[in-house]
Amino acid sequence: MTDQHPIAVLGGGSFGTAIANLLAENGQHVLHWMRDPEQAQAIRLTRENPRYLKGIKIHLGVEPVTDLAATLNACQLIFVALPSSALRQALQPVAELLSGKQLVSTTKGIEAQSFLLMSQILEDIAPQARIGVLSGPNLAREVAEHALTASVVASEDEELCQHVQAALHGRTFRVYASADRFGVELGGALKNVYAIIAGMAAAMGMGENTKSMLITRALAEMTRFAVKLGANPMTFLGLAGVGDLIVTCSSAKSRNYQVGFALGEGLSLEDAVARLGEVAEGVNTIKVLKAKAEELQVYMPLVAGLHAILFEGRTLNQVIGALMNAEPKTDVDFIPTTGF
Ligand SMILES: NC(=O)c1ccc[n+]([C@@H]2O[C@H](COP(=O)([O-])OP(=O)(O)OC[C@H]3O[C@@H](n4cnc5c(N)ncnc54)[C@H](O)[C@@H]3O)[C@@H](O)[C@H]2O)c1
Ligand SMILES: O=P(O)(O)OC[C@H](O)CO
Q1: Could you tell me the CATH number of the domain that includes residue 120?
Q2: What is the per-residue pLDDT for 336?
Q3: Which CATH number do you get for residue 203?
Q4: Does ligand 2 lie within 6 Å of residue 244's CB atom?
Q5: Going edge to edge, which strands form the sheet with 173-178?
Q6: Does 333 fall in a domain?
Q7: Atom of ligand 2 nearest to the CA of 137
Q8: What family does this chain come from, according to its entry (predicted)?
């Protein structure tokens, strides 16, 4: 069933475009808001978004728009696909218009200083809005190319979850619901850091054993951190936890992995980010995560190691040596209890 109102997607990058297309393919009228009028006009004329999703045809049901206030006024359900660095700055000025709306963040980042996740920023800006997140193993290009894909909508608001499921479910996209908004969102933000490490390991020609060790120890580390913050560790066994970790740490289509690969080839961080030309959220997340782990005294050797390479002048070989020679540890070191 299609919505009476158009559905808004905020953000003209690869994920916003992929989600807008999915919604339109399901018969929804989509107002796809982007800040750049030239980009909007180019999409209207060519039905493509060549900078971010070259070669993908954009459905006629997607209407590129640049008037943010008019877009928010017209829509009840709003997907936010802005970079984490831009979300607050873009939406604070229109906060009043968000009241009572269903806001679904797809942005996988953490705000510096506040350590707020993106849906917490939405809550902060618009306390009267209904808030959710969409997260999972969802590489934008694969979503747009109709690879069979699953995602998670997470919110305490069941009606919002059902609305998102109805709007997005289709032949190639399946949405699972969760009530654990915090855990789902945290998983999406944390995995980007480990994807950078996985990209570095790939560039150095490390083997499949190494990849498996990295992913598994990353899962242990991010779960340990999440538990310290009061999250449900079981969420990390789902699509938005280990699912997203696997895809992002395994695929050269991931921008975070690409940054790591470039670093492993010897590029500086600045050059690696410049070569990418798109958002790699893990680059900002690593700084705030390292600081928070120290503050909370959570053992996160992979995070500490990446931080040491990027910002403390350590070499990759020094860090690998330290990681492999660290004191012996147990394998699974958190025990889910019925309290969660
Ligand atoms: N691309 C993916 O595969 C994917 C999948 C799931 C989630 N995400 C998440 O979605 C978020 C957005 O990523 P993306 O891949 O679409 O990014 P992108 O790099 O493809 O595009 C970013 C877009 O944001 C716009 N933008 C930047 N600053 C802005 C501002 N101040 N106001 C308005 N627009 C602004 C840019 O013009 C661009 O259109 C990220 O947090 C990412 O983690 C991405
Ligand atoms: O391209 P990345 O590294 O931002 O990852 C994209 C998605 O988050 C994968 O689920």
Answers
A1: 3.40.50.720
A2: 56
A3: 1.10.1040.10
A4: yes
A5: 62-65, 30-33, 7-10, 77-80, 102-105, 130-135, 149-154, 173-178
A6: no
A7: 10
A8: Belongs to the NAD-dependent glycerol-3-phosphate dehydrogenase family.
Report residues whose beta carbon is within 6 angstroms of any ligand 1 atom.
11-16, 34-36, 52, 81-84, 86, 89-90, 106-109, 138-140, 278-279, 281
Say if residues 137 and 246 touch (Cβ distance below 8 Å).
Answer: yes
| Beta strand ranges found along the chain (DSSP E) | 7-10, 30-33, 62-65, 77-80, 102-105, 130-135, 149-154, 173-178
pLDDT given for residue 337 in this prediction: 53
191 is known as an active-site residue? yes
The verdict on residue 33 lying in a domain is yes
The encoded tokens of residue 107 equal 């942005």
Asked whether residue 307 is domain-assigned, the answer is: yes
Total number of domains constituting the chain: 2
Listed residues 147, 179, 211: the one ending a domain: 179
**The tokens of 9 are what?**
């997607």
Has residue 330 been placed in a domain?
A: no
Q: In the chain, pLDDT over 90 holds for what percent of residues? A: 94
Model confidence pLDDT, tens digit, residues 123-177: 999 999 999 999 999 999 999 999 999 999 999 999 999 999 999 999 999 999 9
What are the residues facing 7 on neighbouring strands? 30
50 and 130, same domain (yes or no): yes
Range(s) of the domain holding residue 25: 7-179
Query: Which of these is catalytic: 54, 57, 191, 292?
Result: 191
User: Does 216 share its domain with 68?
Assistant: no
Two structure tokens written together for 27: 């018969």
ipTM metric: 0.99
What pLDDT score was predicted for residue 332? Answer: 84
In single-letter form, the type of residue at position 71 comes to: T
pLDDT computed for residue 101 by the predictor: 98
What is 109-161 written as a DSSP string?
-B-TTT--BHHHHHHHH-TTSEEEEEESS--HHHHHTT--EEEEEE-S-HHHH
